């Protein structure tokens, strides 16, 4: 199975899993009446919506380039991640509202054993799935898949905190711990929502590759540019799963177009092999017409 199909199948599978987790958490809240468990269940509704949005965005991102989108549809995944971040923040605000009401009228939760057991089971299942989503999202450079996994992992941390807090409330008899815990959960969700939105916006702004990958690109070009003189104006940008690489290649003035083209093909093949899902654009310059002033993106092969 190729990368795109793997990503699409993972995103689609997230939808029924998110629904099952939500049912577990809803039952836990229904049995106990705990506002902290209510906050956990409410966040799971966001998981369901986020999973649907991620699947849709990934499907769109896989569409081939067309007349109106000549560079492809890869950035569609960032829109999904932004939407998920916004939904996370909305969920946090709803939780704060519910927690504030419960804080003024706290009560001991009912049927805690069954409710906490259901929530624990949901947390374990969620943790395993979140790990898989983050792993695949990073491996295949899918912002939507990774954002979904990060959000679910936040949900896991929330669930664990809720479980410990409710056990403490039951042991001490301090009913006020339940709404206080819900407020803490909401604040944590707000922070996670902001991080998801910020990361996605950076992607929409054409963020360059990190320093380590930039060095790899330099090394690949240098190792496969035999016959050329230097490269300069290296530019990179990330668009979902795809890395766009662009630079100028200086060749001897008397080199034929055919020989220069062979060098470009060799470099392009090497980059696409080493940098998965890369798109390479090389501008050839004869030595006597290359621009003069060097900058930090210059690197000579001689």
Report on the architecture of this protein.
This protein folds into two domains: 3-204, Cation efflux protein transmembrane domain (Alpha-lytic protease prodomain-like), CATH 1.20.1510; 211-300, Cation efflux protein, cytoplasmic domain (Alpha-Beta Plaits, 2-Layer Sandwich), CATH 3.30.70.1350. Helix content is 67%, strand content 10%. The chain has helices spanning 3-32, 35-61, 76-104, 112-139, 143-172, 177-204, 211-223, 257-274; strands at 230-239, 242-251, 278-286, 299-300. The chain has a four-stranded mixed β-sheet, covered by helices on one side. β1 (230-239) and β2 form a beta hairpin. α3 runs antiparallel to α6. The mean pLDDT is 81.
CATH superfamily of the largest domain: Cation efflux protein transmembrane domain
Q: Which blocks of ≥5 consecutive residues have pLDDT under 50?
A: none
Topology as a string of helices (H) and strands (E): HHHHHHHEEHEE
Q: How would a crystallographer describe the biggest sheet?
A: 4 strands, mixed
List the helices and strands and how they pair.
Elements: H1 3-32, H2 35-61, H3 76-104, H4 112-139, H5 143-172, H6 177-204, H7 211-223, E1 230-239, E2 242-251, H8 257-274, E3 278-286, E4 299-300
Parallel strand pairs: 2-3
Antiparallel strand pairs: 1-2, 1-4
Helix pairs in contact: 1-2, 1-4, 2-3, 2-5, 2-6, 3-5, 3-6, 4-5, 5-6, 7-8
């Amino acid at each position: 199975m190729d990368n795109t199909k793997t990503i699409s199948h993972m995103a689609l599978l997230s939808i029924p899993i998110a629904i099952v987790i939500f049912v577990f958490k809803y039952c836990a809240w229904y049995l106990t009446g705990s506002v902290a468990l209510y906050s956990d269940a409410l966040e799971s509704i966001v998981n369901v919506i986020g999973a649907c949005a991620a699947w849709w965005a990934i499907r769109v991102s896989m569409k081939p380039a067309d007349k109106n989108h000549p560079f492809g549809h890869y950035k569609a995944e960032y829109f999904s991640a932004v939407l998920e971040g916004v939904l996370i923040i909305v969920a946090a605000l709803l939780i704060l509202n519910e927690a504030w009401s419960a804080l003024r009228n706290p009560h001991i939760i009912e049927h805690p054993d069954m409710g906490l057991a259901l929530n624990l089971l949901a947390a374990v299942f969620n943790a395993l799935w979140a790990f898989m989503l983050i792993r695949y999202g990073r491996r295949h450079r899918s912002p939507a898949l990774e954002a979904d996994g990060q959000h679910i992992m936040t949900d896991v941390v929330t669930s664990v905190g809720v479980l410990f807090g409710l056990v403490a409330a039951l042991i001490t008899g301090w009913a006020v711990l339940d709404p206080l815990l819900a407020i803490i959960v909401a604040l944590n969700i707000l922070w996670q929502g902001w991080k998801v939105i910020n990361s996605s916006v950076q992607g929409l702004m054409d963020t360059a590759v990190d320093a380590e990958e930039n060095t790899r690109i330099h090394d690949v070009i240098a190792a496969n540019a035999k016959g050329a003189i230097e490269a300069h104006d290296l530019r990179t940008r990330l668009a979902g799963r795809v890395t766009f690489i662009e630079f100028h290649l200086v060749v001897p003035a008397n080199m034929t177009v055919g020989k220069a083209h062979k060098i470009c093909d060799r470099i392009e093949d090497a980059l696409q092999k080493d940098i998965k899902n890369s798109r390479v654009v090389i501008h050839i310059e004869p030595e006597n017409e290359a621009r003069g002033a060097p900058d930090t993106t210059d690197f000579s092969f001689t």
